[in-house]
Amino acid sequence: MSKLLEVTGLHASYGDFRVLHGLDFSVEKGGISTLLGANGAGKTTTLRALCGMIKRSGTIRYDGNDIGSKATEEIVRMGVAHVPEGRGTFTGLTTEENLECGAMTRSSRAEIARDMEQVYHWFPRLRERRAQQAGTLSGGEQQMLAIARALMLRPRLMLLDEPSFGLAPMIVQEMFSILRKVNEEEDVAMLIVEQNAGVVLELADTAFVLETGGIVMSGTAAEIRDNETIRAAYLGY
Amino acid sequence: MELLAQQLITGIATGGIYACMALAVVMIYQAIHHLNFAQGEMAMFSTFIAWQMLAWGVPYWLVIPLTVVVSFAGGVAIERLVIRPLGDAPVLSHIVVFIGLFAIINSLAGFIWDFTIKPFPSPFGEGSQFGGLISNHQIGMIAVTMTVLVMLFLFFQYTRVGLAMRAAAENPASARLVGIRVGWMIALGWGMAAAIGAVAGILIAPIVFLEPNMMLSILLYGFAGAVLGGLTSPTGAVFGGFMVGIIENLAGTYIPEIGGELKLPIALFLIVTVLVFKPTGLFGRTVVQRV
């Protein structure tokens, strides 16, 4: 397999304050990588840096192109869908309008309509709520909406920031099984940032462990999962 | 009774103009969270452009679309050249820039066309209907402003660009994450606000006459409408504009102490009252800011 996203020496800072100190990691085509680590390790910052939402340096190669100096909206237009921390829902728009926003960069109305059906098929709750203001949805529904909106882009790579945050365990299971389906059926690669390491290691094939802005460990998800020392030291479960 | 009907119609007719100005102000406020004090001067300048074309003998039906297009381009240009470089500068910097724009546009108009008051012909001609109850120009004003407002509503509700603009105004970070070019959406908002202002200027000029300070009080009424309806709600701004027009005319007619001379303070009184008792306006929503 070849790499869809390859990051080398990624640095990022908030103002003068350096947060990431030269990260190296990658996502295979159609693969799922996960970034694990405690609060403040720099997971969210890494995703923001990839999307050009903060100043960054280093090389970020996506599908053979250097996207290290591109603007956020241009990176998105290349097929990178970022589901941000806190979901980033357009709370004043309806559920359906949120989904239409997700497909804003695409032109074929017929394909968009078909994908809308597909997304409603995966997330039936959203169909029930289609005309409702997104701000009135429950937390779980908003997370579903955020993922569904990202899928409307027809992405090749999804960046997911704590998709399980604040959700009941049953909903987390449901959501991860949908992510698995999306990955297998649509061949969408994913980079998932999670604190809930147990669940995500079941889904991912590669894992990177982040601590205070540096990668301290990497390997296949199975290796990380089975390594008692790492689990105790970094993942806390 | 006839006086009341007449005043109501006049109120609705001028209220439509205030509604347009209020909407222009709110569109820009939603995009950049600052009040554009130069909105009225931009509209005044557009009206002068229309007057100049009329003076050159261009037919009226061509003057209006041409003015709208030129104003749209001017609005986009102001955003690109002046507002965008400001970025996240503090509120005071924005206010200073807006006052600067105000002064520049105002004196430029005076420099080119001088400060004498000029009559401006109505596109709808002279005369009146229903036994003098409503003038042709008032009918035209109501018809045009209603058309503009309905078209804008359809644009924002049912087109993709309209949806993109709403998304960009509501949550710029998320809008970028779905690939919306937020910067251009803001420029588009400025262009549209300038174009709406141009229509409002052309419609009100036959009543207040053309001169560089003609839009000063109109914009004040527009602000009052926007504040009354809520700065965060385009629908509210339109409603507020009409309300201000009606209140202004009825108060001027039926409260002798106010009369024609004290009409303008009504706008200021409204602004102060709304801000004291219901700062979000009638339709606005409370925006909670995290510190």
From TrEMBL, chain A:
Gene3D superfamilies: P-loop containing nucleotide triphosphate hydrolases. Keywords: Amino-acid transport, ATP-binding, Nucleotide-binding, Transport. One of its GO terms (molecular function) is ATP binding. InterPro entries: AAA+_ATPase, ABC_transporter-like_ATP-bd, ABC_transporter-like_CS, BCAA_Transport_ATP-bd_LivF, P-loop_NTPase. Pfam families: ABC_tran (PF00005). Residues 5-237 form the ABC transporter domain. Belongs to the ABC transporter superfamily. This is ATP-binding cassette domain-containing protein. It comes from Hoeflea alexandrii.
Automatic annotation (TrEMBL), chain B:
This is Branched-chain amino acid ABC transporter permease. PANTHER family: ABC TRANSPORTER PERMEASE PROTEIN, BRANCHED-CHAIN AMINO ACID TRANSPORT SYSTEM PERMEASE PROTEIN LIVH. Belongs to the binding-protein-dependent transport system permease family. LivHM subfamily. It comes from Hoeflea alexandrii. It is found in: Cell membrane. Keywords: Amino-acid transport, Cell membrane, Membrane, Transmembrane, Transmembrane helix, Transport. The chain crosses the membrane at residues 6-28, 60-79, 91-113, 133-156, 184-208, 267-288. CDD domains: TM_PBP1_LivH_like (cd06582).
